[in-house]
Each structure stands twice: as structure tokens, then as C-alpha cells.
User: Fold this.
Amino acid sequence: MKNLSRVSRCACAALVAAAPASAICATGAAQAQTGGIATEGGGTAPASGTAPQADQTPTTTRVALRRAEATPHRHLFDNGGRARFTWQLSGQGRVDVRVEVVRKADGKVVRAYRKDAARPGVAYRVGWAGNDGRRHRARVGLYYFRARRLDNGRVIRAGTGAGSRWVKFYWARFPVLGPHSYGDTIGAPRAGHTHQGQDVFAACGAPIVNAVGGRVQYRGYQAGGAGYYVVVDGRDGLDYVYMHLARRVKVSTGDRVRTGDPIGYNGQTGNASGCHLHFEIWAAPGWYEGGTFLNPAPKMKWWDSYS
Assistant:
């Protein structure tokens, strides 16, 4: 039986060698010719240097971005939300995709998300919280999302119907909601001391929100000075102080507060003339803990420009 089996295989191989390309001795002979590599359609792929046959299934998958849109187009760090990128492919077949968050200033990929076997016609979504790959806060600036194929590294182009993929990323927001004007800043003379913050005048009862995410370090009242005030230990290492608040303070000591969370309402408690927010920023180690007060005006006016 063993000798007969060897003879049969040899005869079959001889027939294959002598037959035209379209002739097949047996399934085993065809796999021997091609190397036995399975294709997506269930056939076999040609061996190296062998021309593909007419009945073989193409292995190249052609896809494009049918839908590609980032929302919202402005994202604040630590505000409890994420910049979301919704994408959808058009074309045929499945493809492994890497979605990248790219900083426009230098083209650096700060985060990446993988989706294997993505199918055309299915909407996928990724959410970016504003962190880089090491979970640190990304730089302020303009970012965009792009999709890249994992099999060949090529960026998947967007079709004409795709939306905007850009996101403006910021660390903070302006703390006063509604119309406002600027008053005294740091260094203005006061009885026995100099002004250590920035005054912002607004309507009595105007909402005051948290500028930078962190934790409430202290909430108190000072009759002859700050009135109702709140100190937030920011996630960026700085302390933020809100003074002359109306009685309805919205937070308590120890509360975790995010960027844009309600702090209280604009008032004139303590030693204040007219309803206004007195806002201070302190460097580490913090407010009356060995830190020094900083000039908040440049930051506040920048926050004001986009909030």
C-alpha cells in the first residue's frame, strides 16, 4: 500500500507538470502549487512568484471614510465629558483600523484607539478626555482625528460628506457666566495690604463656575474681608480662590469639582462694594500654605476669549 501511494503521488505530480495551467490533478496538488494559503473567499493564494489565477478572490480591501465628525468642537479638560469622534467606513470587506488624535502644532499622535475588523456601514465612536498616552493632560491647542489602516499603515481618506474632525482643546474656563467687566487687579492699594487678585463685576446672582477641575480645599466666611469664599485645589497644582460669593454657595469642603461645575453666585458679601467676584491664583504649595499669589489677569482674559 505504501509503494502504491508513492506511485500515485508521483503520477499526479507528473500530470500537473505536463498539464496546462487550468488543469488540476487534485485539491492536494493545487495546494502544493500555491503553498496552501487560505484567502478570504475560501480559495488559495498563489505562492511567491506565481501569477494569480482568474478565479481567485482579491485580497485588497478598498475603504474610505464615509462619515468622520468630532463633537463638540471645543473641549475643556476635566469637565466630565469627552471629545467624541464618530466614524463610518464605505467600501467592501473588513479592515483593522487605528484612530489617532493628532496635535496640529507638531503632528504628534497623543492618543490612539484600535478597532479590529471594522465593517463598512457601521458607525463607530471613540471618546478622548484630553489626556496623552501617559494619562497626563495634553497641551492646549488644536487637535484632529484621523483613521489609519493597520495592514498597510495608510491614512483612510474622508469622503465629501464627512464633517469636521477638528477639536479645540483648553484647560480651563472663565468663572463668571453672563455680561461682566474687569475691576482692580493685583497690586491695587488696600488698607494695610495690596490687592492679591482680579475683580470681575457682574450682575448680583450671576452664576460662578469652577475654572479648573480639582477638589474643594476650604469653604468659609470672613466678615471683614472675603465674605463667603471657596478655595479649590486644582489638578494643575495651583489653588483657585473665589471671594464675595452670595450666601448660596454650591459646594462643600472635600467636594470633587470639575471644570465648569457650579461654585456659587456673584455677590458682595464681606468687604465689597458692588457685586463682583474677587479671584485669586496661588502657586504651590498653595493658598496660605507657603505658596505665593500670582497675577490672574492674563489667564482670566485668555479664558474669557474662548469661554
